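Attaching the record inline, Q. Sequence:
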Amino acid sequence: MELVRAHLWISGRVQGVGYRFSTQDVAVLNGLAGWVKNVPDGRVEAVFEGDRAAVEDVIQWCHQGPPHANVAEVLVEYEPLERLKGFEIHQSKG
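Structure, as predicted:
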């Protein structure tokens, strides 16, 4: 099993549609750690850590998101693993 960390920025109609809560559910179901939050510019930011295959599956889900979302773009950067525990919804600052 190869562990990875992916940092995502999701744009489109992704705030006010349950995106963060759905992302948390999908991440937990896939055994991932990390966090998700709304960003003041209207995007959602998320970090996923775990098995590469599970991370890739969740990234694919992020391209569609929950039923009322309309995702325009998903930017992904791979970063050094931080070995996070659990998956949280963070409050945005600003």
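The two ends are 38 Å apart (CA to CA). The mean pLDDT is 96.

More tomorrow.
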